[in-house]
Amino acid sequence: NAMITIKTIGRQWYWSYEYSDFNNVEFDTYMLPEKELKEESFRLLDVDNRTVIPMNTEIRVLTSASDVLHSWAVPSLGIKIDATPGRLNQGTFSINRPGLF
Q: Which reaction does it catalyse (predicted)?
């Protein structure tokens, strides 16, 4: 049983996130343009609002899309969920070490 549910919605050029288990928190994440990247940034991966999740907690991700097919993925955690307009797909994972994924 997942302790936290995060709803992700793929949109053209960005993702919307909703945490509704404790407080109703919603935010968008946009990929950082190359001119704004710092030396320690991850090109084509870094965003303006990072999603923060706790360690040692089962996380459920609900994924959909508002326009076209998208794919929500965190390769280093071994998770990828297709986001399809009109469908709600889900996946679960947990993180057992601190880090930036």
A: 4 Fe(II)-[cytochrome c] + O2 + 8 H(+)(in) = 4 Fe(III)-[cytochrome c] + 2 H2O + 4 H(+)(out)
